[in-house]
Design a protein that fits this description.
The chain folds into 2 domains: about 5-195, no CATH class; about 210-320, no CATH class. The protein is built from 15 helices and 9 strands. It has helices at about 15-40, 40-45, 50-60, 70-80, 85-90, 105-115, 120-140, 210-220, 225-240, 270-275, 280-290, 295-300, 310-320, 350-365, 370-380, and strands at about 5-10, 90-95, 140, 145-155, 160-165, 170-180, 205, 245-250, 255. The strands form 3 sheets. It has a 5-stranded antiparallel sheet, sandwiched between helices. Strand 8 (about 245-250) and strand 9 form a beta hairpin. InterPro entries: DUF763. This is DUF763 domain-containing protein.
């Protein structure tokens, strides 16, 4: 799997009942065949791969590049295995909007029904909550999370499929997680491919390049509330002038350089747009995290009330005052699964392409659908790239 996220156009339409019902039926059969052939854990791994997930949605006949593929496909799969979760060894929780808020309750309920150890169930709940926090508070790319689905097997393998919406660009971005590749929840935790639509300036605190920022943010809150607030006050005092000057005069001790900015960065650096006016809520959060003294960045993020603004403020203190620059690169990459016809970003890998086609055709052929239905589906899947 290639790391990253995927971006799609927003879909405002509604999936017709006749299509959804057929997606449920086919989704159930595809799940059964995959579990029988590869096992429940491998099914979870495939869900965590955006290429596979996208391919499955296309085979089930939904729009290939619409945001609705994420919400409708996960809903169809969840409905398709309803009543057969223990038989398949697969459990699907959460969904779109308010349904996503029920994810922890659903995980706990299935953990009890499937006789999963309480501590293992609690770990699944924690991973679900943290994945949502990371993609909202650490990956600050302008996409608000509105869909969160958590897939897991009885053996403990888990995957997250969640989607965010950017109303300005009228696009949606999907984030995939897999238990094997998310050993560190706050550093490069995502699995999959990425988007063709890149953001020009994304604060990515989960990037490897942001490791110094993560370490410093933890040190800042552990240094105590009074010390941290002195740095925050420094930003409040000078953030309004940073877009017109590189440094300012600091008493008789000479010149204190806050942030080395080239002229072209004056209007793009986030410190320019940031509002550091007095915020009682932010101060309340800082008071709490400083009191709890988290041991590491993950513990810091996990504290209730800590969100995007808290992590952004700590990151900017680290950069402007102490010189620890975080990553401003969009974690997205190009979303080509097998290459492009014009060799961009690389030539089509025919062997991999044909393998994907072969696997999909074999899985469809093994379903218990009517022969006519199978034939219609197979007609949508080419025989090969030749």
């Amino acid at each position: 799997m290639h790391r990253g996220v995927a971006t799609f156009t927003l879909d405002y339409g509604k999936c017709p009942k006749w299509l959804f019902d057929r997606m449920v039926t086919l989704g159930r059969e595809m799940t059964r065949v995959i579990v029988e052939e590869y096992g429940a854990d491998q099914y979870i791994k495939r869900i965590a791969d955006p290429v596979w997930f996208q391919s499955l949605g296309t085979v089930l006949a939904f729009d290939w590049n619409a945001s609705g593929l994420t919400t409708i496909l996960t809903a169809a799969l969840k409905e398709g295995i309803r009543g057969r979760e223990k038989e398949f060894g697969i459990f699907i929780c959460g969904g779109k909007g308010k349904t996503s808020l029920k994810t922890p309750e659903e995980i706990m309920a299935w953990g009890e029904k499937a006789d999963i150890a309480p501590e293992e169930t609690q770990a699944l709940v924690y991973n679900s909550k943290m994945s949502a926090k990371v993609d909202s508070a650490l990956v600050q790319d302008g996409y608000a999370i509105y869909h969160h689905s958590f897939f897991f097997s009885k053996n403990g393998a888990w995957a997250v499929v969640q989607q965010g919406m950017n109303t300005k660009s009228v696009t949606a971005r999907r984030y995939h997680w897999f238990s094997e590749s998310a050993k560190d929840l706050v550093c490069e935790p995502h699995s999959g491919i990425a988007s063709q639509l890149l953001s020009g300036h994304t604060l990515n605190l989960s990037a490897q390049k942001s490791s110094a920022t993560r370490e410093l943010s933890t040190e800042l809150v552990r240094s105590g509330y009074a010390t941290l607030m002195k740095d925050i006050q420094l930003l409040r005092k000078h953030s309004s002038t940073l877009h017109t000057m590189v440094s300012f005069r600091h008493g008789s001790a000479g010149q204190l350089t806050l942030l080395e900015l080239e002229n072209r960065e004056f209007t793009t650096h986030p410190v320019v747009q940031e509002d550091f006016s007095k915020s009682r809520y932010l101060e309340k959060v800082f008071s709490r995290v400083c009191y709890e003294k988290p041991e590491n960045y993950e513990q810091l993020l996990a504290i209730p009330g800590v969100g995007p603004k808290t992590m952004r403020a700590l990151a900017l203190v680290g950069e402007v005052v102490y010189g620890a620059k975080p990553s401003y690169e969009d974690p997205a990459r190009y979303s080509f699964a097998h290459g492009g016809k014009d060799a961009t970003p690389y030539p089509v890998d025919r062997k991999t392409y044909d393998t994907t086609i072969s696997v999909m055709r074999r899985l469809v052929s093994r379903t218990r659908l009517e022969q006519l239905d199978k034939q219609k589906i197979l007609e949508r899947i080419p025989l090969s790239t030749v």
